[in-house]
Design goal:
alpha+beta; Cathepsin B, Chain A; two-stranded antiparallel sheet
Length: about 450
């Protein structure tokens, strides 16, 4: 029966080809051939009726896969609490700080802890504004129609980001506990402030391109950043330069009360962790050559910081690094295409969650490489990788990430992914160098291949 259907489709295709207009448009004959290829069975009509009144995701939910996945994990990093980024694109920042807080909670036996995302986001926005303005200065010898200049003015600012932003910002500005600079409405809802900043930056960019005197250009940029700083203070508050903080143990007893700067706080509790030099971002992008290092131009948060540099590895090698880190109770920055096959009410990422093929009557056969090359898939969200479940042979069956969508989302604020989903939709993980084999580390000695800033595979994670 299936063979006869394929033959019928083939005949329709041939007829359509013969009827196609010379200019490539749909002729009346082609349209008629297309119509003849449609079936009108009872199941087809049932599908049309259902789609007319219901969301596709609900109709495609696989009834055979509704049972909750086993929530036991053979190896899990010790963590406490779930954060909430609300209506903002700061997943990258929450993820990076969640990696640090898990380590501090475990090391000092704390009842809870959260770092101020608002504090570092303030400086993230200031630094990105400077990055744009200086990039405009650097490229003002180019025409406005040049693709690099065009990209800059299209993308002057974002609240999204990636691990390079975490590493550069933390090492430059330190960290503070959440209560020292708490969240407010604007930090939880960043779109409006971001739009106003982008409007101002585009205005500033045009003025800088018209300025020819180098000294005057620097002075003008300083004036612009002073206005930007004022806007950020109004929106997010004044970032502290000094604060007092009391540490309490799990029983609520005072351990110490000290006066800190954000930098001294980081040095005291994380002084042995160099986020800029001790970690490697590894990627699984089958559309590009493996065991090669890549760098993305202008893809950074701080002008005088680091471009995004990563090592592209086969998925099995990425898994091995992640497993080694989890076994040693070390959480990781992790990013993926979270919107694919996510069943929110269960908190699972599983390619069997939805059966779109049965609902729509067509197949979706593209593999990961093909989806990447055709822009059908890419990293969209960062979370904290905290658990893996291994079988008796040491092979992963499933993984778990701590998310930043609040404690009532997913499974207790976490998302559980099957290993098959991990292979198909995981893209990046940041690993401490101590878990990376020596022969793999040597690959970092090669000169990175520079990729353009507009490469869609490297959009900010939100």
């Amino acid at each position: 029966m299936k063979r006869l259907l394929l033959l019928a489709i083939a005949f329709v295709a041939v007829g359509a080809l013969q009827a196609q207009q010379d200019n490539g448009g749909i002729s009346a004959e082609m349209l008629n051939a297309i119509r003849q290829g449609q079936s009108n069975t009872l199941s087809e009509k049932a599908a049309r009726n259902a789609l007319a009144l219901n969301p596709i995701a609900e109709l495609a939910t696989n009834a055979d896969n509704l049972a909750m996945i086993d929530t036991n994990f053979s190896h899990r990093v010790k963590t406490k609490g779930i954060t909430d980024q609300h209506q903002s694109g700061r997943c990258w920042l929450f993820t990076g700080l969640n990696v640090l807080r898990a380590k501090m909670i475990d090391q000092y036996n704390l009842p809870s802890l959260e770092f101020s995302q608002n504090y570092l986001f303030f400086y993230d926005q200031l630094e990105k504004c400077n990055l744009f303005l200086q990039a405009v200065i650097d490229t003002k010898h180019l025409d406005m129609e040049d693709r690099q200049v065009e990209w800059l003015f299209k993308n002057p600012l974002s609240d999204g980001g990636q691990f390079t932003g975490v590493s550069n910002l933390v090492m430059k500005y330190g960290v503070v506990p959440a209560e020292v600079m708490p969240e407010n409405y604007q930090s939880n809802n960043t779109a409006q402030v971001s739009n106003l900043l982008k409007l101002k930056l585009r205005e500033y960019g045009l003025k800088l391109r018209d300025q020819r005197n180098r000294r005057a250009t620097i002075d003008l940029k300083t004036e612009m950043l002073t206005e930007i700083y004022s806007m950020l203070v109004r929106a997010y508050g004044v970032p502290p330069t000094e604060f007092e903080w009391t540490m309490r143990n799990k029983d609520g007893e005072v351990v110490s009360t000290k006066l800190y700067t954000p930098q001294s706080f980081y040095k005291e509790y994380f002084g042995d962790i160099d986020l800029e030099n001790d970690f490697v971002m590894v990627m699984n992008d089958p559309s590009r050559e493996y065991h090669k290092v890549y760098e993305i131009e202008y893809d950074r948060h701080v002008y005088d910081g680091d471009n995004w540099v990563y090592l592209n590895l086969p998925i099995e090698e990425v898994k091995a690094l992640a497993i080694a880190s989890i076994k040693d109770n070390t959480a990781m920055y992790f990013s993926c295409d979270v919107g694919k096959y996510l069943l929110s009410k269960k908190g699972t990422l599983d390619i069997r969650n939805f059966d779109y093929e049965a609902l729509m009557g067509v197949e979706f056969p593209m593999n990961k490489e093909e989806r990447v090359r055709t822009f059908a898939s890419g990293s969209s969200h960062a979370m904290t990788l905290i658990a893996v479940d291994l079988d008796e042979e040491g092979n992963p069956k499933k993984w778990m990430v701590e998310n930043s969508w609040g404690p009532t989302s997913g499974w207790q604020g976490n998302l559980i992914m099957t290993d098959e989903w991990f292979e198909e939709y995981m893209f990046r993980v940041v690993v401490d160098k101590k878990y990376i084999p020596e022969e793999t580390l040597k690959l970092l000695d090669q000169k990175p291949t520079m990729l353009p800033s507009w490469d869609p595979m490297f959009a900010y994670e939100e």
